[in-house]
Write a structure and sequence with these properties.
Length: 477
C-alpha cells in the first residue's frame, strides 16, 4: 500500500472498523443466549472466553497483515501459505459459503421483522418472503453487474440506524431504572436442564457471529498513518464492540428472565426496549433493523461476489469467476453467487429455517478459515518470521499466537459433532471445483500426501453427514 493511502488517524480508523463489524447480530443478542439454553453465569463465562480468544484472533489477523504484507488475499492466503493449496482452497470456499449463508440469515431476519407490520410476510420464510427476497437479490446483483459497488450515503444511514436503537436501549434501561438485580440473579445457573459446560458451549455461535467482519476491519486498519496507529485502532475497535455487546447482554438479563428473553420474537432487542418504554420502543428497534439489514443485503452481495472473485484472481477458483464485463464487474462471480443464494433461499423456505439456525451455519463455515489463520500465525511465530517486525520481542507474539490457537481448538470443540458434520457437507462440494480448476490449469491434483488425507477425511465426513441427514438423524435447522 502506498504511503499516500495511509492517511487515517486512530479515531476515524476505529469508528470505520466498528461500523464494518457491527451487524444484525446485535439486535438479536438479548434473546439468542437464552434461546441456546445459556443462563446468566454461562453467558458471562462465554463472554470471558470470547473476549480473550477473539481478541487474540483479532490481533493475530493484525500481526499477519503487518508481517505478511505480500499475502493480499487475507484468510485464503494465510491458509494456503501455511498448509498448502487444497487447505487454502477450502479456507476460501468456506469464507464464500459463510458470506452467502450470512446473506440468507439477513433475509430471514429482515422479512420476519417486516412481517410484524405486513402480515403477508409471516415469519419471514413463507412463500411471499421467498419471492420478494429473490427479487431483491437479483436486483442487487444487477446493480453490481452495472458497476455499482459502493454506496457511501447508504453506509452512513445504516450506521446511524444501528446506533440509535442500541443507544436508546442502553439509556432507557440505565436511566429508567429498569435493571433489577434480583431478576439478573434469578436464573443465574439455570434449573439443571443443561450442565454449565453445555450452556457455555451454547454461547459460541452467538459470540462468533457478532464478530464476523472483524477480519475485514483489520485489513482496513492498514490505512492507518503508521503501524502503531493501525494497532491502536484495531485494539480500540475490538474493545468498543466487546464492551457494547457485553453491556447489552448484561442489561437485558436484568430486565427480563431467561425464559422471557428466550420467548421474544426476532429481533429480541425490540422486545427488551418495549418492556421498558412501551410499544414505540419495539418500533424504533424494528425500523433500525429494517434499514440496517437493507444496507447489509447490499454490502453482503458485494462481499459474496468478492469472496469468489478474489480467490479466482489468485488461482484458487476457476478463471471464469474473475472475468469482468465492460463495467468492471466480475460477471460470473455475480451470477454464480446469486444462484447459490437463490438455492439456499429455496432450502430456507422448504425447511422454515430460523434466523438463529442460519447464522449458526454461517458461523460454522467461517470457523475453519478463522482457525487456520490462527494456526498459521502460530507457525509464523514458531519459525521466527516475525522477528524483524517485533524488534526482537517474543513474549507478546507468543501469547497472541497461543491464545488465538487455543481459542481455535475451543471453537472446534464447542461446535460439537453435529455442526462439524454439517460444515463438512457445506465444504465437500467445493472439492469438485478444486479438482476441476487444478485440471483446467494443468496442475497436480494435490500438492502432497497431507492434502490427500484432508480430502479423504472431508469426503468421509460429508458422506456420513449426508446419510444421517437423509435418515433424519442429523437436523440442519
Amino acid at each position: 500500500m502506498e504511503n499516500k493511502e495511509r492517511t487515517l488517524g486512530v479515531f476515524p480508523l476505529s469508528m470505520f472498523a466498528v461500523g464494518l463489524t457491527l451487524a444484525s447480530g446485535v439486535f438479536s443478542l438479548s434473546g439468542d443466549f437464552a434461546k441456546s439454553g445459556a443462563h446468566t453465569l454461562a453467558t458471562l463465562i462465554g463472554w470471558g472466553i470470547c473476549g480473550i480468544g477473539m481478541f487474540a484472533l483479532t490481533m493475530a489477523f493484525f500481526k499477519l497483515s503487518v508481517v505478511k504484507k505480500e499475502l493480499t488475499s487475507g484468510i485464503y492466503s494465510y491458509a494456503k501459505e501455511g498448509f498448502g493449496e487444497y487447505v487454502g482452497f477450502n479456507s476460501a470456499w468456506g469464507y464464500w459459503m459463510s458470506a452467502i449463508l450470512a446473506q440468507i440469515s439477513f433475509i430471514a431476519l429482515l422479512f420476519e421483522t417486516i412481517g410484524r407490520y405486513v402480515p403477508a410476510f409471516g415469519n419471514g420464510t413463507n412463500l411471499t418472503s421467498i419471492l420478494v427476497s429473490s427479487l431483491v437479490i437479483w436486483a442487487l446483483s444487477l446493480l453490481i453487474l452495472r458497476g455499482v459497488n459502493q454506496a457511501v450515503v447508504l453506509n452512513a444511514v445504516v450506521v446511524i440506524a444501528k446506533a440509535i436503537p442500541i443507544l436508546a436501549v442502553v439509556v432507557a434501561i440505565i436511566f429508567g431504572g429498569a435493571f433489577k438485580w434480583d431478576i439478573f440473579m434469578e436464573n443465574f445457573t439455570g434449573t439443571g436442564e443443561l450442565s454449565l459446560m453445555e450452556q457455555i458451549k451454547g454461547t459460541v455461535y452467538t459470540t462468533v457471529w457478532i464478530f464476523i467482519g472483524i477480519e475485514g476491519a483489520v485489513v482496513i486498519s492498514g490505512r492507518g498513518r503508521t503501524t502503531k496507529i493501525a494497532g491502536q485502532a484495531t485494539i480500540i475497535s475490538f474493545l468498543s464492540l466487546f464492551i457494547l455487546y457485553v453491556i447489552i447482554s448484561v442489561l437485558s438479563m436484568g430486565v427480563m428472565s431467561a425464559e422471557e428473553l428466550a420467548a421474544l420474537p426476532n429481533p429480541s432487542l425490540g422486545g427488551v426496549l418495549e418492556s421498558v418504554v412501551g410499544p414505540w420502543g419495539a418500533t424504533l428497534v424494528n425500523v433500525g433493523v429494517i434499514i440496517s439489514l437493507g444496507g447489509a443485503l447490499f454490502s453482503y452481495t458485494i462481499l459474496c461476489v468478492d469472496s469468489a472473485f478474489g480467490p479466482s484472481e489468485h488461482g484458487a477458483f476457476p478463471t471464469i469467476l474473475s472475468k469482468q464485463n465492460a463495467k468492471g464487474a466480475p460477471t460470473w462471480s455475480v451470477i454464480i453467487s446469486a444462484l447459490i443464494i437463490q438455492l439456499f433461499i429455496i432450502i430456507m423456505y422448504l425447511n422454515s429455517a430460523t434466523f438463529q439456525a442460519l447464522y449458526a451455519l454461517s458461523t460454522s463455515a467461517i470457523m475453519v478459515p478463522y482457525v487456520l489463520s490462527a494456526f498459521y500465525y502460530l507457525k509464523v511465530v514458531a519459525k521466527g518470521e516475525d522477528k524483524e517486525f517485533e524488534g526482537g520481542k517474543r513474549t507478546l507474539p507468543w501469547i497472541i499466537a497461543l491464545g488465538a490457537s487455543v481459542y481455535g481448538f475451543w471453537l472446534l470443540y464447542a461446535s460439537g459433532t453435529t455442526y462439524i458434520l454439517i460444515a463438512s457437507l457445506l465444504y465437500a462440494p467445493g472439492t469438485l471445483m478444486y479438482l476441476y480448476n487444478r485440471k483446467k490449469r494443468g496442475l497436480k491434483m494435490f500438492d502432497g500426501s497431507k492434502s490427500v488425507v484432508v480430502c479423504v477425511i472431508l469426503i468421509a465426513a460429508a458422506v456420513i453427514s449426508l446419510v444421517l441427514t437423509v435418515n433424519g438423524t442429523l437436523e440442519w435447522f
